Amino acid sequence: MNIQIINGPNLNLLGVREKSIYGNTDFESYLSELKAHFKNIDIAYFQSNVEGEIINKIHEVGFTYDGIVLNAGAYTHTSIAIADAIAAIKTPVIEVHISNVYKREEFRHHSRLAASCKGVIAGFGMHSYRLGIESLLIS
Ligand code: DQA
After folding, report:
1. Which candidate in 24, 111, 123, 132 could, as Cys together with 69 as Cys, close a disulfide (CB 3.0–4.6 Å)?
2. CATH numbers and ranges of domains, the chain
3. Tell me: the pLDDT tens digits for 71-116?
4. Is 62 a pocket residue for ligand 1 (Cβ < 6 Å)?
5. Under a CB-based contact definition with an 8 Å cutoff, are residues 112 and 76 in contact?
6. For residues 98 and 30, is the Cβ–Cβ distance under 8 A?
7. Residues with catalytic function
8. pLDDT tens for each residue of 16-66
9. From CA 39, how far away is CA 138, in angstroms rounded?
10. Which distant-in-sequence residues (6+ apart) come within 8 Å of 18 by Cβ?
C-alpha cells in the first residue's frame, strides 16, 4: 500500500512555529515514528509552500497511490485550485489538521477542500496524520 502525505505552507516550520498550537516536534521526527508504526505501508512525504507544487504532487500520485493525507495549511481555507485537483483524481484524500481549527479564528472554520475529500480529521496534534492513515485502511 502506498500513501502520500502532503504538507502545505509553513508546515516545514513544525517544531519551531507557534509551538503552543503545533507542538515541539518537527515533521521529519514524527515521520520516522509513523513509518515505524505502519511497517507494511510505503509512506511518501512531500512539503511545499507553493500552491501549484501541491497541485502537481496531487496529480502525480492521484491515479496510482492508495491514499493521500493532506494538510494544506492555510490553503485549506482559500484554494479552489487544490479543491479542483482533489476532485479530479481517483485516489481518496483525507484532509488533516494538527490543531482543532473549529476552536480557532472563524476564518479557519471553513474548508474549501473538505467537500472533495473522503473525510476530515482535526485537533489531534501530530496524531492527526496517524489517524488519517488509519482512516484509509478502513475501506
Ligand atoms: C493547520 C490549520 C490551518 O488553519 C493553518 O493555516 C495551518 C495549519 C493545522 O494543521 O492545524 O497552517 O492546517
Report:
1. 132
2. 2-137 (3.40.50.9100)
3. 999 999 999 999 999 999 999 999 999 999 999 999 999 999 999 9
4. no
5. yes
6. no
7. 22, 97
8. 999 999 999 999 999 999 999 999 999 999 999 999 999 999 999 999 999
9. 17
10. none
Please provide residue 138's backbone torsions phi and psi, each rounded to the nearest 5 degrees.
Answer: -65, -40
Buried b (16+ CB within 10 A) or exposed e, 50-85: ebeebbebbeebbeebebbbbbbbebbbbbeebbeb
Where helices occur in the chain by DSSP H, the ranges are: 19-22, 27-37, 51-61, 80-88, 127-138
In DSSP terms, 121 is beta-bridged to 96
The set of cell numbers assigned to 36 is 515505524
Q: Which grid cell sits at 115?
A: 467537500
Q: What is the residue type of 85?
A: A
Q: Which H or E run contains 45? A: strand 42-47
The CB of 73 under 6 Å from ligand 1? The reply is yes
Q: Do 48 and 73 contact (CB within 8 A), yes or no?
A: no
Write out the three cell numbers for 32. Answer: 520516522
Cβ 13 under 6 angstroms from ligand 1: no
> Ligand 1 pocket check: which of 13, 99, 105, 106 to mutate, most ligand atoms within 8 Å of Cβ?
99
